[in-house]
Design a protein that fits this description.
Helix content is 33%, strand content 27%. By secondary structure, it is an alpha/beta fold. The strands form three sheets. A six-stranded mixed beta sheet has the order 6-7-8-3-9-10, sandwiched between helices. The chain binds adenosine-5'-triphosphate and magnesium ion.
Amino acid sequence: MIEAIDLTKRYEESTLALDALNLKVAPGEIYFLLGANGAGKTTVINIFLNFVEPTAGRALINGVDVTADALEAKKYLSYVSEDLMLYGNFTARQNLDFFARLGGKQGLKRDDYYQVLREVGLEERAFEQKVKEFSKGMRQKVGLAAAIVKDAPAILLDEPTSGLDPKVGAELMETLSELRSRRKAILVATHDIFRATEVADRIGIMKEGRKVMERTRGELEHEDLQTLYLDYMRGGFRTDMRTGTAGL
Ligand SMILES: Nc1ncnc2c1ncn2[C@@H]1O[C@H](COP(=O)(O)OP(=O)(O)OP(=O)(O)O)[C@@H](O)[C@H]1O
Ligand SMILES: [Mg+2]
């Protein structure tokens, strides 16, 4: 479970980057967080990763407060970002091995890594190739594989499909669906409305640090997400912050 309770962030003297955000991602759920540039999506993720301290409110992973108990919370978390920190001089398999050990996983064999690399759709010939020779899509697959190897119950992704070709983007989403069926709680910060419509179980739209809309897949069945999104960005809706629902 990923949970934000009245999460608030003010960077120094600037305006609120996050304003009492409430959000929950249950095991087996994919949550897509949409919003304009600067809406606060990455700030949410960075607080969960303990890269950034909240000004107020709490961020919990499996009930563990990420600020109060950072080391414990990290065990339950995997992270995939747009520009991943992989080791260029290591092969795909060596990177997985490195991150597995870092995450406290021991006893994994070459074939275990190969199996995960297959699962994310990396070509076999790249398994023992140095990552510095990889395209962005290939690197992104290794990053997701590292998250899978860690086998944490919560996975955070910041702009995971940015710059990926449609096929690689689709493969990434298939992997996320597979992880959902393994009961992972998955939070994706993105601008990708198309993918949101395709795979998200729940979608939140952020604007200026607040969640202005939240709907389930079922609730969005008869609505066009892009139209709805643009309506919120243009300020055509009044938001009820208690329920996160809106009326005209
Ligand atoms: N380290 C920082 N120091 C000061 N202000 C920051 C910092 N990081 C983010 N901000 C500010 O906080 C607000 C939210 O930024 P954030 O990066 O969370 O938005 P975002 O929704 O991820 O945007 P994007 O879609 O462009 O990635 C912005 O106004 C940004 O300028
Ligand atoms: Mg961002």
